[in-house]
Design brief:
Largest sheet: 8 strands, mixed
Helix content: 10-25%
Structural class: alpha+beta
Shape: globular
Radius of gyration: 22 Å
Number of strands: 26
Number of domains: 2
CATH class of the largest domain: Alpha Beta
């Protein structure tokens, strides 16, 4: 077990009950305040550790195990830190854990440094944590793929022939990935009202969310060198919550033959804190039996799915809210190791800060479906809201908020915070 994950660890800092950010988590992000420019921070309880201040104060000295320099900590993105690789970021998390544990006096007794090195989360502005060079979106939940196939193709043969042979994916748009709290404008595009009518131009009428998670990569191998499933964990830095906003009517008309384009690339929202893969180690569980047997390059050993509870809440313009989905990251047919192995099997090179999203995470029952397309079953089963209105898709003024966390048997809760976005009317 990674020592920083020890469920018996306690911090000398007071951690609020049910906090997403106990000492066993320590997620990384980019923050700023009125006095401090954007830089690297780590969440602990309701505080943010200012890593550049810790470095300047001598708590994070540069060493072979901690090869980071001041500019890595004062950077406005996590990319320089991530570029040092898995071993270095693992050692950094371990060092922070040792500074915060209740049997360590090194930082605890340096009380004059507390106001500089620790800042209340209420006083910070969070920014997009990485400069995303490339973004790929997968399609890896069997329940989601099966639901979509039933609605739009053949209920008896809902999955396409290739689906159980490879983690299907498409290349998305990195420039429109935004951090939680950023409003999203309803997009325009071509729509096809019916089979008989010609296409028209206008704002999307079927705006949807997709409940996803995404992982961020360390630098991969050189062009032409694939990453195996056995190696994949060494190239995954951590995960965020991911809302892949989707204009279903634009998507339906455009996706044949090359797949999603304008229906997807107008915005995707992510949570600001990156939870390291190491922090999620206690939540590994077995994945589903994959039948038919996968090709050798997709074969893997060990537990590679993760038990993380997820939910989606819609808040109406007048403030009424309803949780419309409760799902779990364990509902993935294809796991992250397989996704990364498939992405690179042709020699595609992965760079530090690249993002690979899971695809919509749906469970097997109603109530666990990860999109309004499924929840309302293509609009035929409207969702009643507390204010008396119905939702088939997302209305202007609605705010969609996703949350993810998991409490272990030992009572430790690891969380991601939330990703939230308000839908604005079309321009």
């Amino acid at each position: 077990m990674i020592e920083a994950n020890n469920p018996s660890l306690k911090s000398w800092l007071e951690i609020p009950v049910n906090s997403d950010f106990p000492i066993q988590n320590l997620p990384f992000g980019i923050f700023s305040t009125n006095q401090v420019t954007s830089r690297v921070g780590v969440a602990i309880g309701d505080q943010v550790l200012n890593l550049s201040a810790l470095y300047e104060a001598g708590f994070l000295p540069t060493s072979p195990d901690l090869p980071f320099v001041e500019s890595d900590y004062s950077s406005s993105t996590l990319n320089p830190l991530i570029h040092h690789g898995k071993s270095a970021t693992r050692q950094l998390r371990a060092r922070l854990s040792s500074l915060l544990r209740d049997d360590s006096s090194e930082l605890r007794d340096a009380k004059k440094m507390h106001s500089v090195c620790m800042i209340s989360q209420r006083l910070v502005t969070m920014h997009i944590p990485v400069n995303v060079g490339d973004y790929t979106d997968c399609y890896s939940s069997e329940d989601h793929a099966r639901n979509v196939g039933k609605m739009f193709r053949d209920p008896e043969n809902a999955l396409l022939p290739n689906w159980k042979h490879m983690p299907v994916a498409y290349h998305g748009r990195a420039s429109s990935i935004v951090v939680s709290g950023t409003p999203v404008t309803r997009p325009h595009g071509q729509l096809k009202p019916s089979e008989e009518e010609p296409p028209v131009y206008g704002p999307s009428r079927l705006l949807d969310f997709e409940l996803e998670m995404a992982f961020i990569t360390h630098p991969g191998k050189s062009l032409g060198q694939p990453i195996s499933t056995d190696e994949a964990d060494d190239f995954i830095f951590g995960l965020v919550l991911f809302n892949d906003w989707s204009a279903r009517d634009i998507q339906k008309w455009e996706y044949i033959p090359l797949g999603p384009f304008l229906g997807k690339n107008f915005a995707s929202s992510i949570s600001p804190w990156i939870v390291t893969l190491d922090a999620l180690e206690p939540y590994r569980i077995p994945g589903p039996v994959q039948d038919p047997q996968v090709l050798p390059y997709l074969d893997y050993t060990g537990d590679s799915n993760y038990d993380i509870d997820l939910e989606v809440e819609i808040v109406t313009p007048n403030g009424d809210s309803k949780v419309v989905c409760k799902s779990n990251f364990k509902h993935m047919y294809w796991n992250m190791r397989q996704q990364l192995a498939h992405h690179t099997v042709n020699g595609c090179n992965i760079r530090g800060g690249d993002m690979i999203a899971s695809g919509t995470i749906s469970g097997p029952e109603e109530g666990s479906f990860g999109s309004m397309l499924e929840i309302s079953w293509k609009g035929t089963k409207p969702v009643s809201m507390p204010d008396g209105t119905d939702r088939r898709f997302i209305n202007d003024g609605d705010t969609v908020t996703m949350r993810g966390s998991k409490r272990s048997e030992k009572g430790v809760s690891i969380g991601f915070g939330e990703v939230s976005g308000k839908l604005l009317p079309a321009n």
